[in-house]
Amino acid sequence: MSPALLLAKTKKPEVIIAANDLQMTTASLWLVVIGLVVFFVLRPGLWRRLVLKRVDPRPAALVRIFLGITIFWTVADLLMWGRFLFTDEGLYLTDMARERFGDRLRRVWDPEHGFESLPMMFGVLASKWTVLHMRSDPPFVWGVFAATMAANVAMIVGWRTRLTTLLTFIGVMQIYNYSPIWYAGGDTVTRTMIFLGLFCRWGEAYSIDTWQRRKRAIMGGAASLPPLRAIPVWPQRIMLLQLAIIYCSTGLLKSGSTWGVYGSAIYYAMNLDHFYRMPLTGLTTLLQRSGVLMVSTWVVHWWESLFPLLLVGLAVRDYEKARTLGDPDGWLCASKTRRRLSWLVLAISWIGFALATRIAIKYYYDPKYLPKLLELGPDGLGWLIFAGLLAIPVAVIAGYRALRRRRPGAHAVALQWVFGKRMWLTLGVMMHLGIEVSMNVGTFVQVMVAMYPAFLSGREVANIWRYLGSSIREEDSGGVPTLAQRVRAWAGALKEGAARGERPRWMSVILTSSFIHRVARLFGAGPLRWGSNLVSRQAGARWTVLHAPDDRSVRVAALLRCWDVMELLTFECVDAATPGELWIRDGRGVELRGSLAAARLGRIFPGLWGLCLPGVVVERVCGQTRGVALRRVVGRVHLRLLGQR
């Protein structure tokens, strides 16, 4: 039998859709699109609230920083393989790469005569184009890499942010468009998100641009610190929608018994030499047999499949806020008649989506992925899915209204956890950390987690900074931690309750046994103490900035508020202070001046952590003497950045 015949045997049969079903699918999808358009025409206030609203710029700024670091990491990692992957001394000659991957460039550009015409040149710019298909000698390639990394660093620190974001996007696309041979899933996400960043004004916080704007205002005579400027929310909304689509589609594609029944998919993945970081066959077998990997597989599968519930939760909480506060914008601004008509139009759109899904099930139904109970035939299963899609929103809305009316406590828990950011984002971080530690999947982990700040609000970002600036409570610093004390108090209460006949004696005996107390004492210095330190916190140590009473000294000191995101600084006017000198004092009376003071502020100003870290490491490794010398050098740099010199 010939190889061609073997390939023909393994090829899946072509799906032929009947003409009437194809027309019905097209009409159903048009019904969905038209219904959504009519819905927002009837509710323009809701469209403004969801898409055109202006929000706090701090979450978008964190996305810029984390995504920029991920891009820098990716490009720097490619330098090791740059000569082999991107130059004419490696995998492809320039002409070969252009012929294989050059898209329009290979047809309208010639190395000797250039472009056929000016319109052709602009047409190439709109295609999958890279300058490396014109020239790819090593010095030129290293120049492209260096320019991309320089623009990326400028984007991270927020210098000329709109321009450097555009240059970063162009540089990244020059590298990615050369050859797809090294692509991974994270690279596609990176290109998508940096493109959306072109439309996001994410330089309005945590950036040199914003600091310079506020500095000009302060030094120019402003009576108060200029606030951060709000930015349009729609690019962030698209980022969130893109993340939800990635997760949900990935979860739905994880079908079969290894994901849904046996929970062995992660076990198999961790034993593939293409993915694992080190061979861990024995450990993975133990984890699978003990049920850890099995439960993890089920959790990951359903977490990804149901991730859009987080977006539903964001909308529902926004609606509840408008309903509670009587917010006139968005949800409640339209009349009752218009609101009812808009929801009717949305219901018709949902019917169109259900019809299109029924037809897709009819032609792409595969019984081997479904239980015996659902083997109803393609058409029967399609109508069953259609009926289910119509019933789900009715049941969910009715159940939600009943829960809000009859069980307000459970309703609050559902909003905070089932549809809340805490559970979904925490599970996401845990999942990605596990992937990063155990598997080699490129920068997929980094770029996905880098987008998580887009889910936060400005108030939540401020709370996170205040938490990072807090410290462990003094009463929890020694002895048995508070959590262990609570465990013992709880066990004692159970014992007393059993003595009064409030609960079974056997439960009290088990929970108040000496074994439980030994476990509590054992974990008192370990996980319980660590958990107590995470929860039981107090405001961090505050520093007082001492400044001279003249107007310039006051304004220069006020510039420090632009860096103080943890809110750990207070200010005091002192006649003895030298104008222009940086002078700080902590709560215990320790005073630092000049470069040493600037170096110390670098530890509580996140914008200076990158410069402060080498001094801390040298001090820990080489001792106080060398650490002080390096801190003075770093402090001089800090003085200039803080506007003190």
Question: What report would you give on this structure?
Answer:
There is one protein chain. The chain is mainly alpha-helical and 645 residues long. The protein folds into 4 domains: 23-53 and 247-460, no CATH class; 56-213 and 228-235, no CATH class; 472-538, no CATH class; 543-641, no CATH class. Helix content is 64%, strand content 4%. α4 (58-78) packs antiparallel against α23 and α13 (234-253) crosses α17. The chain is globular and about 90 Å long. Mean pLDDT is 83; it is low at 1-10, 473-481 and 520-526.
Essential attributes:
single chain, 4-stranded mixed beta sheet, mainly alpha, 64% helix, 645 residues, 32 helices, disordered N terminus, two-stranded antiparallel ribbon
Low-confidence stretches: 1-10, 473-481, 520-526
Q: Whole-Å distance between the termini?
A: 82 Å
**Strand portion:** under 5%
Overall shape? globular
- Specify the biggest β-sheet: 4 strands, mixed
> Based on helices, strands and strand pairing, what is the structural class?
mainly alpha
Compute the CA-based radius of gyration. Answer: 30 Å
The helix content, as a percent range, equals 55-70%
Q: What is the residue-mean pLDDT, rounded to a whole number? A: 83
Number of helices: 32
